Amino acid sequence: MRLRAVAVAVALLLPIAGCKAPSQGALTQESAGAGTQLPSGSGFDFYLLNLSWSPEFCYSHPNAAECAAHPSFVLHGLWPQNSDGTYPDSCSTAPGPSNPSQFNDIYPDQGLLHHEWQAHGTCSGLSPDAFFLTARSAFHAITIPPTLSTLSSQISLPPDQIVDLFTASNPSVPRESFVVSCGHNFLTAIEVCLDKRLHPIPCSAIRSCRANTVRIPAP
Predict the structure, then answer these.
(1) Torsion of the alpha carbons at 35, 143, 114 and 196, rounded to the nearest 10
(2) What mean pLDDT is predicted for residues 18-30?
(3) CA-to-CA distance for 102 and 106, rounded, in angstroms?
(4) pLDDT for the residue 49
């Protein structure tokens, strides 16, 4: 697992994945939600959308609200990143959304929502509502492959085959925009690199899983 994922593992999860992608595979300000602004001059280079494989999270967090529904992939976060491999973190102490319950569909745990805002949202250049509207749109833009969304028993796959599944389910997203994250030869997340307007871009600065195969336990 990448060091970043270890650092934020306690702040995992969100809603059940599997929503349909827009036909263009990219988002606009309008589709991100009313009032959302997607700035071009914020102090980072691109976004990393992290969709965590929930069984790995729920194994160590059995009482988490997100685990009751036995989801497959869940939204961990939308993280500002830099092309040199660094990333901004906790850029201000600005308060989060005034009505966090409006984002219960992606962050049922209010503690997680506030963590994601303080650690990542404050570095986005967006208001709290705009940041979470953008995260919601990015999350819903990725279709989860049926092989994984309906998994009923543990399987093992090479990372490249996992990327193949996502590419087949998201034909408008380039293969180079997907990265597999793993830990101890278990799948931990699929990550998607997006520009500031949420168009897919190559993940040249993100390290991918180097395991020959990874185990994927059923939700």
Answers:
(1) -50
(2) 36
(3) 9
(4) 98
Alpha-carbon span 14 to 78, nearest angstrom: 12
CATH of 3-216, one of 3.30.70.3420, 3.30.930.10, 3.90.730.10, 3.40.50.300: 3.90.730.10
- Taking the whole predicted model, whether its pTM rises above 0.90 is answered as no
Does 76 participate in catalysis according to the annotation?
Answer: yes
Q: Is the pLDDT of residue 109 over 90?
A: no
Q: d(Cα 62, Cα 71) in Å, to the nearest integer?
A: 13
**Domain residue ranges of the chain, discontinuous segments joined by +:** 3-216
List the catalytic residue out of 114, 115, 120, 140.
120
For residue 26, pLDDT beyond 60: no
The number of helix segments (H) and strand segments (E) in the chain equals 7, 6
Query: What pLDDT does residue 58 have?
Result: 72
Whether 191 is catalytic:
no
Token code pair at residue 44: 């980072």
Residue from 76, 114, 115, 140 carrying the catalytic annotation: 76
Q: Which of 56, 66, 116, 191 is catalytic?
A: 116
Summarize the confidence of residues 17-34 as an average pLDDT: 36
Residues of the chain by 3-state class (helix, strand, coil), percent to 5: 30, 20, 50
Q: How many residues in total does the chain contain?
A: 219
Whether 114 sits among the annotated catalytic residues: the reply is no
